[in-house]
């Protein structure tokens, strides 16, 4: 059976950040798509978070948005998400959506403390008013120090211009507080792989490990990979091919069971 791979947009970064992974997976025979917001930037966030049920938590609105798209597929896809997208992958698997999931440097679910670095990032980022909402905008210096590490400022500068956007403050605050991210860790779901960078300054490897220790309560296959020398941008920093190949190897083992 052929499985479709869906890459899920995370926080701060534009969908174009998946271009390298998408080409690599297609070269390995996978059909791919990137699940992104209905429009670029602030307008897209506004349409998702102020859609059908504005009373829901921002995170639930986002997960509902992706769930509707995935439910329309003819067969459950493989879900791959980075940062906030990695948390969304876990929440979608918990709903029974997706044949397997890969969460890369994922924001943690409820019951897993996000870590001081993550909280400081949200609290120290400048907020601005757009579309009747408050959005957080990371500066180039913040991006280089947190998300771009361990690369140099000269290397991360072009990445900032190409990929970094704004993210709703209400969404990031609820994620940091664990609102709307409760998981049933012993719930039946598809296989899950959690990956972290050993030098991640946004989602520390210890946070991803704590997430894994909860997730492995499930009877479904659950694995954890820590990659020394990698920062938060595992999907685009030098050596990203190794990350993609590790995921493909894991997928081939898991999908062979079905």
Automatic annotation (TrEMBL):
<keyword id="KW-0378">Hydrolase</keyword>
<protein>
    <submittedName>
        <fullName>Lysophospholipase, alpha-beta hydrolase superfamily</fullName>
    </submittedName>
</protein>
<feature type="domain" description="AB hydrolase-1">
    <location>
        <begin position="10"/>
        <end position="238"/>
    </location>
</feature>
<dbReference type="GO" id="GO:0016787">
    <property type="term" value="F:hydrolase activity"/>
</dbReference>
<dbReference type="Pfam" id="PF12697">
    <property type="entry name" value="Abhydrolase_6"/>
</dbReference>
<dbReference type="InterPro" id="IPR000073">
    <property type="entry name" value="AB_hydrolase_1"/>
</dbReference>
<dbReference type="InterPro" id="IPR029058">
    <property type="entry name" value="AB_hydrolase_fold"/>
</dbReference>
């Amino acid at each position: 059976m052929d499985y479709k791979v869906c890459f899920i947009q995370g926080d701060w970064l534009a969908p174009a950040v998946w271009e390298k992974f998408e080409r690599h997976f297609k070269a390995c025979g996978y059909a791919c798509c990137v699940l992104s917001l209905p429009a670029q930037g602030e307008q897209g966030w506004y349409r998702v978070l102020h859609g059908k049920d504005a009373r829901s938590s921002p995170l639930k609105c986002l997960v509902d948005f992706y769930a509707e798209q995935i439910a329309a597929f003819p067969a459950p896809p493989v879900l791959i998400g980075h940062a906030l997208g990695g948390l969304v992958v876990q929440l979608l698997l918990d709903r029974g959506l997706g044949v397997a999931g890969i969460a890369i440097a994922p924001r943690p679910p409820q019951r897993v403390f996000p870590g001081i670095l993550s909280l400081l990032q949200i609290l120290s980022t400048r907020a601005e008013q757009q579309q009747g909402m408050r959005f957080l905008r990371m500066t180039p210096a913040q991006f280089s120090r947190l998300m771009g590490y361990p690369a140099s400022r000269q290397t991360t500068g072009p990445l900032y211009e190409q990929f970094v956007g704004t993210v709703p403050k209400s969404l990031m605050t609820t994620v940091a507080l664990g609102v709307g991210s409760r998981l049933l860790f012993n719930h039946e779901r598809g296989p899950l792989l959690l990956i972290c960078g050993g030098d991640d300054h946004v989602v520390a490897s210890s946070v991803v490990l704590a997430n894994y220790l909860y997730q492995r309560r499930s009877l479904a296959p659950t694995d954890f990979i820590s990659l020394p020398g990698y920062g938060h941008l595992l999907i685009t920093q030098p050596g990203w091919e190794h990350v993609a190949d590790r995921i493909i190897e894991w997928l081939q083992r898991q999908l062979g069971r079905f």
